[in-house]
Predict the 3D structure of the following.
Amino acid sequence: MPDLTPEQAFVFDYVERNGRAISLLGDSIFYFGELGMQEFETAGLMTALLEKGGFAVHRGISGLPTGFCATCGSGGPVVAIHTEYDAVPDNSQSAGVTEHKPIIDGAPGHCEGHNVNAAVLVATALAAKAAMDRFGLKGTLKVFGAPAEEQLISRPYLVRDGWFDDVDVAFHDHISSDWAAGYGLIQSALISALFTFHGESAHSGTAPEKGRDALDAVVLMDMGMAQYREHMPLTSRAQRAITSGGDQPNTTPRKASVWWYFRDATAEGAQKLFDQARKIAQGAALMTNTEAEVQVLAAVWPLRGNRTLAELVQRNISLVGMPEWTEDEQRFARDLQTRANVKVEGLRRDLRLPKGEAVQKWSANDAGDVSWKVPMVKLYYPANVPNLSAHHWAAGAPLATSIAHKGAVAGAKAMAASVVQCFIDPPLVEEAKKSFKEELGGLAYASLLPEGQMPPLDLNSDTMERFRPLMARHYLKETPEFR
Ligand SMILES: [Zn+2]
C-alpha cells in the first residue's frame, strides 16, 4: 500500500472506526424499505445523524418533503455530495438467504441497494467534516438527499430551483458489484409521460355507436409508436405500460391511459422522440373522437462524468482497493448466482478500473441534470454480488449482510478522501471546472421539465400507507451512532 497523506489516513481511520454505525444505518434503511417521495423514516434518520454531527439541515427543499440539504463550513470551494435512498415496489426480500423470501409478501423493498447509498453518503459527510475540523480546511460541504430516484423525480427540481448555483464540484455515490468512476456519457436521457385519453361511455352491446372509446385511442397510439420505431435513430428507445384500459367489456371505456418512457443518448434526442409521440397521440385521439391529455412525470438529462473528478476518485479507489471477502461471503455469492441463474463467479477479487471514456448505458438517473450544471462524478462502489439484476429478489439478499457493510466502508473511504482533497487543493477544483467547460463544448443546459412543473407529492403514498404498519414490525431497534 502506498503512503497515505495525513488527511487520507485520518479519513480512512474515521470510516473504519465507524464501520458498525455505517452497517447499522444501511441495514435500518433496508428494513424501512420506503418508496420514492415517501422516504420519511429514511430521511429522518439521515438528517438526525447529520445534525448530530454538526451539519445545519434544511428539510423539504424544492417542495420535496423527504429531500434535504445539510451544510457545514463556509466559503469556497463548495463541494456537493448527493444520493438517492428509495426502494422498489414488490421487492421485499429477506437478507442473507439464497432463495426468494419476502419479509412481507407484496411489500416494497430494497433490491438495488439505495439503502447502502444513504449509508455511504452520511459516512462520507461525517468523515469529511471531521477532517475539515481536524486540519482546519476551508470550504463548504453541501449534502443533498434526493428522493424518488426510481421515478427520476428530484434532482432536476433541485437544479432548476438553484440549489446547485453556488456548487463548484459534485460527487454522487451508487452501489455496484465493482469499483468505477467513469467520465464522458454514462447513462441516458429519459422523459417519462402519462398519456390519458378521454371519451364517453356507452352500453357496448346495445348502443356502441354512442360511445367514444378511450381504449381504442391507447391501442392506436401503440400502433403508431410501433410503426414509428422503424424510423427511430439507434440511440433511441421507447417502452410503455398500459395503466388503465376500461373496467368491463359491456361498457365502452370512457378513460384509458398509457405510461411511456422515452430514452435517448442525448437530451435533445429524448425531446424529439417525445414530440413525435405527442403527434401520434393526437392522431389517435382524432381517429377515435377522444381527447388526449399529456402529463410529464419526469424528465432527466443523460448522466455524465467529469474527467478531472473521475481521475481523482480513481486514485482514491486504488488506495482503498477491493474489500477482502471471506470464504463464507464468496460461497453465499456463488450460491446466490446459481439460484438467480446468472454467471457463477463469486465476488470480485481484483480492482478493474475502467480505462478511457465510459460506455454509455441505457439506464437513467435523475442525477443527470446535476452533471450538466456542475462538474460531477458518479462513484460506483462494490457492495453487491456481481451479475444479479437490480429489482430482482436476488439483488436484495446481500443488502443487509457483511458484503454490503464492507462495500459501504470502502465506498465511503474513497468518496470522503476525494471530497477532502477538493478542500486541500482548490486548484484541483478549478481544473475540474476548466475541463468541464471544455467537455460541454458550449452546450447550454436547459431543464427538460415543462414550465411550472411541480413534483408529485402523492407518489407511492397509497402503497406505503398499506404496507408501512406491517413493515414497521421489522425495523431495527438499535440507532447508529458515529463518533
Ligand atoms: Zn439506483
